[in-house]
Automatic annotation (TrEMBL):
Alphabetized PROSITE patterns for the sequence: PROKAR_LIPOPROTEIN (PS51257)
Domain RagB/SusD per the UniProt entry, residue ranges: 341-467
Family: Belongs to the SusD family.
GO cellular component labels: cell outer membrane
Name of the protein described by the UniProt record: SusD family protein
Length: 467
């Protein structure tokens, strides 16, 4: 697995050998320390926050936000070429790989795959303890491995296209825990075949809980949600709808902003306890305070928010004084809500509702799809008027607008826009105007594919860039 972070993995093994005295007091040195169900259960108690789930680069690229607390005009005018400058100006000519020595999501997600998911899968069948718990842990590990690879292939490869997936370069699909091995890059089709294989293996165990013990453990709702995401990327909307319908049986709680309206406007600060939020299917985030200090773009504020949006128009979340301080742009607010812990890289019931809506609209059940969209909107817009659409194209337009704000600052906007662009029918050319200059990101731009970091390519020659 030297394709991602060999040195870090070896350091972890050394730390385990030197720092787990409570285990070596019981188990002879040199033997497997993770040989009990309780040990593997503890291994899955991961705090899914930090660099593996940082989606800021993707959110800057798709024009959800500007840099986090970094002066935008100074970055653009600098003679020093940086990734930030490339993302802001959509410079396709820049050598992004040369500037990407390391990459937090790439290294972090493979680290999670190898030191959590694959270790559980390698040890569950031979560990002692409750056999039902061990089956559950295996199922959780399969879903964790699938979702981590799903994020990786969508960041570092082309979006799935049935016509070219068999030849499009993807990412390594890592199933071993051999830190000396090199895992060759798979095609996009091979990655997606493995994604479905892992999800189906998890569901076949029939052991996932209906309600996981907390938002960072995996239950049936998230497992079916992952399956639906994969199938939607593969454009199999009927099968995706079946998976979404199953997921909604276990969690249909939708975050509701209307409760803010009962407060004086000066007190309308939304509260969301990240890991404990009722709408979580799986909680993974940039950090505990995201998106505080993020700044939406001119285009998001002007074109994407519906009039009457409770957060934008009826709360105190957007602070225009702080926006200028953060990014150096006039008329841009900063998101200031430290009591709101967004689910940046996991999934919520909003994912399920909007996936359901898209699948229905694609299946010519436009009225039913619009009803699902309005389930979200009624909790976001005041005064609320339900939207209706006469055909698929109009329904998809409303879906894209609702989805863009519902998933603002998250990895989901990037993945959705990228797959719609690859399909072509609902592609979007993104424009960004800064200091009187308009920059354009086309649907087929290579910038939609992020570079493999040198920390991986120097060990694995199969990791040729996918753009």
């Amino acid at each position: 697995m030297r394709n991602y972070f060999y040195g870090w993995a070896m350091a972890v093994l050394l730390l385990v050998a030197s720092g787990c005295k409570k285990y070596t007091d019981i188990t002879p040195k040199g033997q497997n320390l993770l040989n009990r169900a309780a040990d593997l259960d503890l291994l899955l108690n991961v705090n899914y926050s930090g660099t593996p789930f940082t989606a800021q680069k993707q959110a800057i690229l798709d024009n959800d936000m500007y840099l986090q607390a970094v002066n935008v005009p100074n970055t653009i005018s600098s003679n020093v070429q940086t990734i930030n400058k490339i993302l802001l100006t959509y410079d396709e000519s820049a050598n992004r790989a040369a500037l990407t020595l390391t990459d937090g999501p790439y290294e972090g997600l493979y680290r999670l795959i190898s030191t959590v998911a694959n270790i559980v899968l390698a040890n569950a069948d031979k560990a002692s303890g409750d056999p039902l718990l061990l089956k559950q842990l295996k199922a959780e590990a399969y879903i964790l491995r699938a979702y981590s690879h799903y994020l990786l292939v969508n960041i570092y490869a082309k979006a799935y296209d049935p016509a070219t997936a068999a030849t499009d370069g993807g990412v390594p699909y890592v199933k071993d825990i051999d830190f000396e091995s090199v895992n060759n890059k798979n095609t996009v089709k091979e990655v997606y075949d493995n994604l479905l294989g892992d999800v189906d293996a998890a569901l076949a165990l029939e052991s996932l809980p209906e309600q996981p013990k907390n938002g960072m453990r995996i239950g049936k709702a998230f497992a079916y949600a992952v399956k639906a995401k994969i199938l939607m990327s593969m454009r199999n909307y009927p099968a995706a709808l079946e998976a979404v319908t199953e997921a909604l049986k276990y969690n249909s709680n939708i975050e509701d902003h209307r409760s803010l309206l009962a407060l004086p406007k000066a007190a309308r600060m939304p509260v969301r306890s990240g890991v404990g939020a009722a709408d979580n299917l799986f909680y993974a985030t940039d950090n505990s305070f995201s998106p505080t200090t993020f700044a939406p773009t001119y285009e998001i504020l002007r074109d994407c928010y519906e009039p009457g949006n409770i957060i934008k128009d009826s709360s105190i979340v957007y602070n225009y004084d702080m926006g200028m301080l953060y990014v150096g742009l006039a008329g841009i607010p900063g998101w200031i809500a430290p009591t709101y812990e967004a689910n940046m890289a996991g999934m919520t019931t909003s994912d399920l509702v909007l996936m359901k809506a898209e699948c229905l609209i694609r299946n010519k059940q436009v009225a039913e799809g619009m009803a699902a969209i309005n389930e979200i909107r009624i909790r976001r817009i005041v005064p609320f008027t339900p939207l209706s659409a006469s055909d698929e194209a109009q329904g998809m337009k409303y879906l894209q607008q609702t989805s863009r704000i519902e998933f603002l600052f998250t990895i989901r906007n990037f993945i959705n826009l990228k797959r719609w662009n690859r399909e072509g029918t609902y592609a979007t050319t993104i424009t960004r105007t800064l200091n009187g200059i308009t920059y354009q990101l086309k649907p087929d731009s290579p910038l939609w594919i992020f570079p493999f970091p040198q920390s991986a390519t120097q060990f694995n020659t199969s990791l040729t860039q996918n753009y």
